[in-house]
Design brief:
- This protein is of the alpha+beta class.
- It folds into two domains: 13-231, no CATH class; 234-339, Jelly Rolls, CATH 2.60.120.
- 48% of the residues lie in helices and 13% in strands.
- It contains seven helices and eight strands.
- It has helices at 14-18, 23-41, 46-103, 111-116, 129-143, 150-205, 220-223, and strands spanning 234-241, 245-248, 261-266, 272-277, 289-291, 296-300, 311-316, 323-329.
- A four-stranded antiparallel beta sheet has the order 1-8-3-6, with helices on one face.
- The longest helix is centred in the N-terminal third of the chain and has 58 residues, at 46-103.
- The radius of gyration is 27 Å and the shape is elongated.
Length: 340
């Protein structure tokens, strides 16, 4: 008799167990199973056609949920980097500049100066995001009361609008990440259940030759998946592109190969064209991909141009709007330290 705490291996859903907290692994595992079933269904045998017809819609649902999650997670991280850069700019550039402008009119210990900077510079350097942004707003209101500081007030207003907009976008995507993560988890459990059902059907179908079951899954995804995780790639570059202009991503020049995987975030409101070339002056190749506003695209450099290309190019085709982007690298063979 089996001990009371014994759990029979076949009563456990290995597809669900192996992919706990790993949406990317389930994405690969389920896509692989889908392609293998599709190949079998091509033979026309009703058993495999029915299995594929039952599985494929569930796979599409998971794929769509995974894409939505990846997009929102990437945009959240990109907006967070942009926000942190704004805070760095506030501390190292803007506050010293504004402080100097105020002191040019009101000396440091005068009542007017103290009214404008009651806590000095410290209030802007630490604390929660929203408190520090509120401090900028408070500074704006104080400086705006002094006509002789109008130019400084205009600069504070511009900075406040930018950082406040970035923070708002970050919070929106933070909520979307949570929402799409919950939906994706439901979909992960659902597709694991369907694969478990398929395993049972295949065990019955191949009961005299069980070794044939293995060809319907890439077993390495279940047994050894140490290099597959949901970790975000490091963002190696981010910034803006002026209208009707292109830039090279200098951090990656000559440091990628065909298998280098890029996660490209369009954080602005105009499309960005992405491709690789041997020289920055080379014409636009036919392998260009377009990243639409507020979308994330995951691609390899091999899909963007020839394998021996050296330059990664981002092009803003709009002649009116400024484009915004960030790009991360997810490739285990590339030297991450080299591109930082």
């Amino acid at each position: 008799m089996a001990p009371s705490n014994f759990t029979w291996h076949y009563s456990q859903n290995q597809f669900e167990n192996a992919t706990v907290n790993n949406f990317k692994l389930m994405h690969l595992l389920s896509a692989d199973h889908d392609s293998r079933l599709a190949a079998e269904a091509q033979g026309g045998l009703p058993f495999f056609v029915d299995m594929y017809d039952g599985y494929h819609p569930v796979r599409i649902k998971y794929s769509n949920a995974y894409t939505a999650w990846i997009n929102n997670k990437g945009m959240y991280k990109a907006q967070t980097v942009r926000l942190m850069n704004s805070f760095d700019e506030l501390i190292t550039e803007k506050i010293p500049l504004w402080d100097a402008a105020v002191q040019a009119v009101y000396l440091e210990k005068t009542p007017e100066y103290i009214e404008i900077f009651p806590g000095g510079r410290t209030a802007f350097q630490t604390g929660p995001y929203d408190i520090r942004i509120a401090q900028v707003d408070s500074l704006l209101k104080s400086v705006s009361q002094h006509e002789e500081l109008k130019k400084t007030a205009d600069d504070i207003q511009k900075f406040y609008d930018t950082i406040n907009k970035t923070r708002s976008k970050q919070q929106v995507y933070e909520g979307k990440v949570k929402e799409t993560s919950e939906l994706l988890e439901e979909s992960r459990i659902d597709i694991a259940r369907v694969m478990y059902e398929n395993l049972g059907l295949l065990m019955n179908h191949f009961s005299s030759k069980p070794e044939k079951i293995q060809r319907f899954w890439q077993l390495e995804y279940i047994t050894t998946h140490t290099n597959i995780s949901d970790d975000d790639p490091d963002i190696v570059a981010q910034g803006d592109i002026e209208p009707d202009s292109k830039i090279t991503i200098d951090a990656l020049t000559g440091k990628f190969d065909a298998d280098t995987e890029l996660e490209i975030h369009n954080t602005g409101d105009t499309a960005i064209e992405v491709y690789t070339t041997k020289l920055p002056s080379d014409p636009v190749p036919g392998t260009t991909i377009t990243v639409e506003p507020e979308k994330t695209v995951i691609t390899t450099c091999g899909e963007l141009g020839a394998e021996d290309n050296l330059y990664l190019i981002f092009n803003n085709a709009s002649d009116v709007k400024v484009a915004s982007y960030s790009v991360g690298v997810n490739h285990y063979g590339i030297n991450q330290e080299e591109i930082k």
